[in-house]
Design brief:
It is a single chain. It contains 11 helices and 8 strands. The protein is α/β, with parallel strands linked by helices. It has 2 domains: 1-30 and 78-120 and 171-252, TPP-binding domain (Rossmann fold, 3-Layer(aba) Sandwich); 32-76 and 125-162, 2-Layer Sandwich (SIR2/SIRT2 'Small Domain'). The strands form 2 sheets. A 6-stranded parallel β-sheet has the order 3-2-1-6-7-8, sandwiched between helices. Strands 4-5 form a two-stranded antiparallel sheet. Helix 1 (7-13) crosses helix 11 (238-250) and helix 7 (81-89) runs parallel beside helix 11. It is elongated and about 60 Å long. The chain starts with 6 loop residues before the first helix and ends with a helix. 41% of the residues are buried. It binds 2'-O-acetyl adenosine-5-diphosphoribose and zinc ion (ZN). The site of 2'-O-acetyl adenosine-5-diphosphoribose has 27 residues, from helix 2.
Length: 252
């Protein structure tokens, strides 16, 4: 794979690299993205019916069942070559993974994730008292279209348990946001990988990193809103581009 001549050296010299990732980094693990035509979740499901506090209040079993279906997909998936390449780079320099994804594929590849900006499928909590809750052990037996599963109840107060993800209209977890801001303060290179760069405030992160002097490299098969800001746009699948580039950096 060919890269711009100076890019492998820039990667090799970086001291602190942020990987800002979106659904596309998990696509090659078989986890659907949100906005890809045909396969994207938001082309098949209505976000207003499934990913808002109002939707959960209206029909908790529909919403809980849909997140159980997504959790089941992640449980049966494996990290791909992109997650693995990102994890491996941490042996060479400081790496901060800032993800919009609610899966744990970065962690299972060996990365310590600095920020889960949109929460996590594995961190359900009580809607009333906020206590963390647990999923039943094992892989939920749910199917794609419309498995209604009543949410569990809180062990402490009996309240309803909700998925630990950020819904439309909700704020981002402050500690994760803070961690991402701190990472921007010292990063000299940021990879934006597999995100449409459409959802704010997360989409501001690469822009701020560029303003802060970091070199921004985008990895995405499609053009995005970030193309104009990124110093390098690598059009390809993350599972091909990242291992090849990080290998080239090792010998640069
Ligand atoms: P999107 O579905 O909006 O964008 C996925 C991006 O990944 C697209 O730009 C694709 O071109 C790209 N892509 C697809 N396959 C790829 C591959 N193999 N390698 C690299 N890139 C690939 O997903 P996000 O940008 O993550 O929010 O969406 C942002 C947020 O919108 C999500 O976190 C979610 C959603 O609504 C919440 O749930 C709050
Ligand atoms: Zn409770």
């Amino acid at each position: 794979m060919d890269f711009p001549a100076d890019l492998p050296t820039r990667v090799a010299r970086a001291r602190h690299v942020i990987f800002f990732t979106g659904a596309g980094v998990s696509a090659e693990s078989g986890i659907p993205t949100f906005r890809d035509a045909q396969s994207g979740l938001w082309s098949r499901f209505d976000a207003a019916e499934l990913a808002t506090p109002e939707a959960f209040a209206r029909d908790p079993a529909l919403v809980w069942g849909w997140y159980e279906w997504r959790r089941m997909k992640v449980l049966t998936a494996r990290p791909n070559a992109a997650h693995e390449a990102i994890a491996a780079l941490a042996a060479d320099c400081r790496v901060s993974v800032v993800t919009q994804n609610v899966d744990d594929l970065h962690e299972r590849a060996g990365s310590k994730v600095c920020a889960h900006l949109h929460g996590h499928l594995n961190r359900p909590r009580c809607i009333d008292c906020g206590s963390p809750a647990r999923h039943p052990a094992g892989i939920p037996a749910v199917v794609e279209d419309g498995a209604r599963i009543p949410p569990p109840t809180c062990m402490k107060c009996g309240g309803m348990v909700r998925p630990g993800v950020v819904w439309f209209g909700e704020s981002l977890p402050p500690a994760d946001w803070q961690a991402a801001m701190e990472a921007i303060g010292s990063a000299d290179l940021l990879f934006s990988v597999g995100t449409s760069s459409l959802v704010w405030p997360a989409a501001e992160i690469p822009v701020w990193a560029a303003q802060h002097g970091a070199c921004v490299v985008q990895v995405n098969p499609q053009p995005t809103a970030l193309d104009e800001i990124a110093a390098y746009n690598l059009h390809g699948a993350a599972g091909c581009v990242l291992p090849a580039l990080l290998m080239a950096a090792r010998t640069a």
